[in-house]
Each structure stands twice: as structure tokens, then as C-alpha cells.
Amino acid sequence: MDNLDDLLGRLRDLPADPRLMGMDGVVMNGVSARLERRTTARSAALAGMAALALGMAASVAPGVPAQAAALFGSPPALAPSSLLAGE
What is the pTM of this model? Predict the structure, then answer.
């Protein structure tokens, strides 16, 4: 078996693989994509927690009782059902 120092010396003298020249851009694109996904997930979690807190606060706060309003501003006396009934 060859000496390890000789093998490493021969490896050092070999030319670099040309694929290594474009590796920086690929790695940086991967890092930025991962950070973007993490930021998106964090934003979605924050929005969900804010919606949950707002819903809980709205359910605890006293509200005004619901009251029906006349449809299109017409009084209920002009509704077809009341006109047919003769009221």
C-alpha cells in the first residue's frame, strides 16, 4: 500500500474539478431558499396566533344584541306577505 503522504501529494497536484467553480452560487441559493421558507413559516405561525388571540378577545368582550333591519330600506308593512294578508 502506498504511503498516505504520497497519495495526498498526488491528490494536491491534480487540477481542481471544474464543477467546483459554480458551487458557490448553488450553495448560496439553497441557503436563501431555506431562510425564505423558515421566514414564511414563522410569519404564518405569527398570523395564526394573532387571529386566535383576536378571536378569543372578541368572544370575551360583551357585544351588542343583534337586531334585524328592514331589507333595502322598505318598511315591513309593504312586504308582499303583509299586503296579501290584508294587515
Answer: 0.38
